[in-house]
Amino acid sequence: MQENKMEVLSPAGDMECLVKAVDFGADAVFLAGQEFGMRTASKNFDMTELEKAVNYAHSKGVRVYVTCNTLPRNNELDRLPEFLSGCESVGVDAFIIADMGVLQLAKKYAPSVEVHISTQAGIVNYAAANAFYNLGASRVVLARELSLDEIADIRAHIPSQLEIEVFVHGAMCVSFSGRCLISAYLTGRDANRGDCAQPCRWKYHLYEENREGQFFPVEEADGGTYLYNSKDMCMIDYIPQLYAAGVSSLKIEGRAKSAYYTAVVTNAYRHAVADFYAGGCKQDYYVAPEIAQELDKISHRAYSTGFYLGGEPGQNTSDGGYIRHYDFVGTCESSNENKALIIQRNRFFTGDTLDVLPPSGRPFNAVILEMYDEDGIPVQSAPHPMQRLTAVTDVNIPAGSMLRRRRLL
Q: What is the pLDDT of residues 376-396, one digit of tens each?
């Protein structure tokens, strides 16, 4: 049995996401500065914001890992020492690094900060894991292409002090360990430097060279074919198997996603892991249905178990869109008995039954009995983004709760 509980590691693309990750149960968060991270689409953190983020997370007992996992070019290297030492000075707990040169620089300019080796390094065997351990790494983030059996074999051949982190939820990349050149070829945006345009999600057609301007679907389906569009990963039902394989940290993908996504997914895996340990880490454990169902209340592609169970996850070849069963309609800023101050995010109505996700505890339903605008005038709907409303409900809604409304079929 592992000495330490498996960590729930959540993404934080900005401060709002970080707060939700912390409040909904993350043990650690991973984020990026303004440079050297693999998600330039996120807002990310300048050094002042990073210090605030670290202070908030540490006040709640949550660790902070900074992604420094791009493959920097020569003209970027001069900026790395100041960035690395700055991260150390504000108290970050670890760097996530892919490049050997960056690893050496981190050891020199931020020696007190742990080094985790990024999935971008493509670690698929214990020889590579041991090599990075000998270079000073305390954790390896394994390639997503490994099965549970292969992970267990790596665990058996590396020091017990070397932690194993794996992705368990979120978007999958069509290329091995994210080493993709499609974006750079088609748009000039280099995925290996954090600027992927996600052309794997685009719609493609086949052209015949002698029939200019005439396209042919690759499959017999309307609207073209999404050749590279990988399914999303979801491993909520396999906590015992991940534990048995020796995994130390369960990583949730999504630094470019919303605070709502971060809260919901973090909450689901937090409950799943907590329930697994509370039940004695039994291999016949299964996640409670209401917790697993939470992952259908976010926008997502069709789910798969990735490469963990053997084989490949496959692609959604028929469309590039998301599955959306629920709309995120607001957050509860404060509450007093059965009166809730709600900050609107999407339209909802008096009389609606809202699905409530509290920062602690299980999801539940609440009916909007009455609703008033900021002037105290009764209203029947909340049509304006970020509108502040007072709602009278049939049950108390805790402050910090996320509110959802099921879409009509």
A: 999 999 999 999 999 999 999
Task: Retrieve residue 405's tokens.
Answer: 């409304």
- The neighbour count for residue 229, using CB atoms within 10 Å, is 24
Using the CB atoms, write b or e for 75-112: b if 16+ within 10 Å: eeeeebeebbbbbbebebbbbbbbbeebbebbbebbee
Distance from the first to the final alpha carbon of the chain: 46
Bridge-based pairing of strands 114-117 and 139-141 is parallel
Q: Residue 40 — pLDDT band, cuts 50, 70, 90?
A: low
> What pTM does this model have?
0.89
Structural tokens at position 288: 């409670």
The SS3 of residue 381 is strand
**In sequence order, what are the residues at sequence separation of 6 or more whose Cβ sits closer than 8 angstroms to the Cβ of residue 370?**
350, 378, 391, 392
User: Which residue shows structure tokens 């210090």?
Assistant: 51
- Coil/strand/helix, residue 279: coil
For residues 209 and 229, give the distance between their C-alpha atoms in angstroms, rounded to a whole number: 25
Domains of the chain in start order, with CATH, are 7-175+231-304 (3.20.20.70), 326-406 (2.40.30.10)
